[in-house]
Design a protein that fits this description.
The protein is α/β, with parallel strands linked by helices and about 375 residues long. Helix content is about 45%, strand content about 15%.
């Protein structure tokens, strides 16, 4: 956490930097932020678009008693199948660009809602896989804080005779391995990072700052100027509902789509495409996914296969006593479990011809990029 004492936190102000001293071109600002993210972290173009627009939206979050531009503030969930995929780097970038960042990997529920009430930060919750798990009260507060009306009530006073109200409304980013509880996950835009391959080149943040020391501070000032100059105009932007998305996902993306449409039509089309592609979050069976990749690669090599039927692959796994799958929990390993573990890597079963028969299974070519990233 950036402060150890709530009393050291200054009274709520909207921003923690000065606005840029001249009018900002919104298209140029969007492109510059997107390019910097792409130069520092490996991710898809759709994820770059989502993150950039999410950064923009954090500058429009006001204290709970103010008129808000948006009804909801989507939670950004940065996750990966395993460690060492760039989550900490991306969090650091966001902390440098978003207003009043506070990062925490522990803390009481009371500390969190009091921080939000007093500071109105962009709140970063790190190591969510250990910090949030089984903390139902915290999950409830994060769920409520997704809406501008989000609040909690606590009793105060000498005899606890006074009811105190605390806002839970703020921009939030949750970082960790695996998926969040379903109710919280549904309020998120999920960014699923991949491990970098040796052939993929990115810069280090320190390298960038050595060459361009004002990179992040200049962009932050420009974002403040953009928010100050354009809030009233963005209020008038109308976005069509996308029937491909469920109601909650539409709510998640509405603030980002309104900003994108205001910037220009090209950015809006990119944002619509990103909303459709990133809306399918999938589930990870934690602790087994990399082992599954190892065993899948071994079977492809040992059996000299380019494709394999799902049920045949399942039998190979379950019948080998040297592998952990014959005693897999949750009632035993199934085709569904295999699909669920592979889905976060972007690997899906498909139909193909085996002689005259149409079968369902996996193709080796679909695994090559994932094998290189996670098993090299």
């Amino acid at each position: 956490m950036n402060s150890n004492n709530l009393n050291d936190i200054s009274q709520d102000t909207r921003f923690d930097a000065e606005p840029w001293n001249q009018e900002v071109n919104s298209q140029t600002l969007f492109i510059n932020i997107q390019r910097i993210i792409a130069s520092l972290v490996i991710m898809s173009e759709q994820e770059q678009t989502a993150i950039t627009l999410w950064i923009f939206h954090t500058f429009f979050i006001k204290s709970a008693n103010s008129t808000q531009l948006f009804e909801c503030s989507p939670i950004l969930n940065i996750t990966s199948p395993v460690r060492a995929c760039g989550k900490s780097t991306l969090r650091e970038i966001l902390e440098k660009l978003c207003p009043k960042p506070i990062s925490m990997a522990n803390g009481t529920t009371a500390t969190i809602f009091r921080l939000i009430e007093k500071k109105l930060p962009t709140l970063f919750i790190d190591e969510a896989d250990t910090f949030i798990e089984n903390r139902l009260e915290l999950i409830g507060i994060l769920n409520e804080g997704y809406k501008k009306s989000g609040k909690v009530f606590r009793q105060g006073g000498k005899q606890f005779e006074d009811t105190q109200e605390f806002s839970t409304w703020s921009a939030k980013c949750i970082v960790g391995i695996g998926n969040l509880p379903n109710t919280l996950q549904s309020r998120c835009i999920q960014i699923k990072l991949r491990r970098k391959m040796v052939s993929e080149k990115i810069m280090k943040i320190n390298e960038m700052l050595e060459e361009y020391p004002n990179t992040f501070s200049d962009l932050k000032s420009q974002l403040i100027r953009f928010a100050n100059d354009n809030e009233e105009a963005i209020k008038l932007v109308k976005v069509e509902l996308n029937a491909k998305l469920d109601d909650r996902t539409q709510d998640n993306w509405l603030p980002l789509l309104k900003i994108a449409k205001y910037i220009d039509d090209t950015v809006y089309k990119e944002a619509v495409n990103a909303s459709e592609i990133l809306s399918d979050t999938g589930k990870v069976e934690d602790g087994y996914e990399v082992e599954l990749l190892k065993d899948m690669r071994k079977i492809f090599i040992d059996k000299n296969l380019s494709q394999i039927k799902t049920m045949l692959f399942l039998n190979y796994l379950k019948l080998n006593p040297e592998l952990p799958w014959h005693s897999y929990p949750r009632g035993g390993l199934t085709a569904y479990h295999i699909s669920a573990m592979l889905k976060p890597f972007g690997i899906y079963p498909s139909q193909y011809k085996e002689g005259k028969e149409t079968v369902r299974g996996y193709s080796r070519v679909d695994f090559e990029d994932t094998f290189n990233r996670y098993l090299s």
